[in-house]
């Protein structure tokens, strides 16, 4: 007999979540402080109530089925809403403020992040959490609804299900270097052949556009460094350790200070910035409005 949805047991979901994240009943039982037999019984009861298997066994590990992955996504959202319910009940002003959790790739210009944050605060006087990290980690957090919005310098792959992206900005891109490299401007861009470059990672759209640009002109530079951290890129360039591939606006301050020189613009190469969200049952209204109303510039 199926249990009505209104009678689903919160503890069953909690123990299922522990098994799913820990990868097995023994570790899950240790984490939540109950016996393995209790965990097994509650898992069986949950599977019976949902009418589907949630795990497959591989040796000593339990692997989520397709239905299990779906249930895990729902469980994580239920727990998040439960935590929010407790917070709102104890501190009513939390609900009045609202909350927006934003993931940010390190290459996104800080000035643009501040602009987006200011726009969010105009929509509602919300509490904002910013988290910086690797793309795969941030995307996972978004899909698990631990983040409401991503600000990225690359769009998600077309195969990423239930992910929505909107391009909001394109920055012209140039090559920058210290005084040592200034003379390369005379024969730019062919003067880049054999020169040390400080490159963004291959996963970024900027790197892919740059590679196509260089290939088209048969320019073969030396890839000396790879990093998506623009602060490190600029520091390496000012030390004369290579030529940095940078959006023009973030590099302006260092050019004015005489620490970097613009060697030349990469015609047709741009640094794009995207807002990214994931489909969810209950949309964060602030993230939703940013996705639809943030001005494209």
Q: Would you give an account of this structure?
A:
This protein has 297 residues and is of the alpha/beta class. It folds into 3 domains: 84 residues, Arc Repressor Mutant, subunit A (Orthogonal Bundle), CATH 1.10.10; 94 residues, 3-Layer(aba) Sandwich (D-Maltodextrin-Binding Protein, domain 2); 103 residues, Periplasmic binding protein-like II (D-Maltodextrin-Binding Protein, domain 2, 3-Layer(aba) Sandwich). The chain contains 11 helices and 10 strands. The strands form 2 sheets. The protein has an 8-stranded mixed sheet with strand order 4-3-5-10-6-9-7-8, with helices on both faces. Strand 7, helix 8 and strand 8 form a beta-alpha-beta unit. The N terminus is likely disordered.
The CATH topology of the largest domain is what? D-Maltodextrin-Binding Protein, domain 2
3D shape:
elongated
The number of strands is 10
Distance between the termini: 57 Å
CATH superfamily annotation of the largest domain? Periplasmic binding protein-like II
Total discrete domains = 3
Strand content: 15-25%
Secondary structure category: alpha/beta
> What's the CATH C level of the largest domain?
Alpha Beta
How can the largest sheet be summarized?
8 strands, mixed
Helix coverage percent of residues?
40-55%
The total count of helices amounts to: 11
Task: Work out the radius of gyration.
Answer: 24 Å
Mean pLDDT: 86
Order of helix and strand elements from N to C terminus: HHHEEHHEHEHEEEHEHEHEH
CATH architecture of the largest domain: 3-Layer(aba) Sandwich
- List low-pLDDT spans: 1-5
Strands of the widest sheet, in order across it, are 4-3-5-10-6-9-7-8
């Amino acid at each position: 007999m199926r249990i009505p949805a209104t009678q689903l047991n919160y503890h069953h979901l909690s123990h299922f979540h522990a098994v799913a994240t820990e990868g097995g009943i023994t570790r899950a039982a240790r984490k939540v402080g109950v016996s393995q037999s209790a965990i097994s019984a509650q898992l069986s009861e949950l599977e019976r109530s949902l009418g589907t298997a949630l795990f497959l066994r591989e040796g000593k590990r339990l692997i989520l089925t397709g239905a299990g992955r779906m249930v895990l996504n729902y469980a994580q959202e239920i727990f998040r809403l439960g935590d929010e319910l407790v917070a709102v009940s104890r501190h009513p002003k939390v609900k009045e403020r609202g909350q927006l959790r934003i993931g940010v790739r390190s290459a996104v210009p800080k000035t643009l992040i501040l602009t987006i944050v200011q726009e969010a605060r105009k929509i509602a006087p919300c509490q904002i959490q910013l988290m910086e990290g690797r793309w795969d980690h941030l995307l996972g957090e978004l899909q698990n609804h631990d983040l409401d919005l991503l600000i990225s310098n690359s769009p998600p792959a077309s195969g990423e299900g239930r992910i929505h992206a909107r391009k909001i900005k394109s920055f012209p891109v140039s090559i920058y270097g210290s005084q040592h490299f200034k003379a390369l401007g005379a024969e730019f861009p062919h003067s880049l052949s054999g020169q040390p470059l400080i490159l963004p990672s291959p996963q970024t759209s900027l790197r892919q556009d740059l590679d196509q640009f260089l290939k088209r002109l048969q320019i073969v530079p030396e890839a000396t460094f790879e990093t998506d951290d623009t602060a490190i890129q600029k520091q390496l360039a000012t030390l004369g350790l290579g030529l940095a591939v940078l959006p023009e606006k973030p590099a302006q301050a260092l050019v004015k200070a005489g620490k970097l020189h613009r060697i030349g613009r990469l015609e047709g190469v741009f640094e794009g910035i995207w807002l990214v969200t994931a489909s969810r049952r209950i949309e964060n209204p602030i993230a939703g409005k940013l996705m639809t109303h943030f001005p494209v510039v």
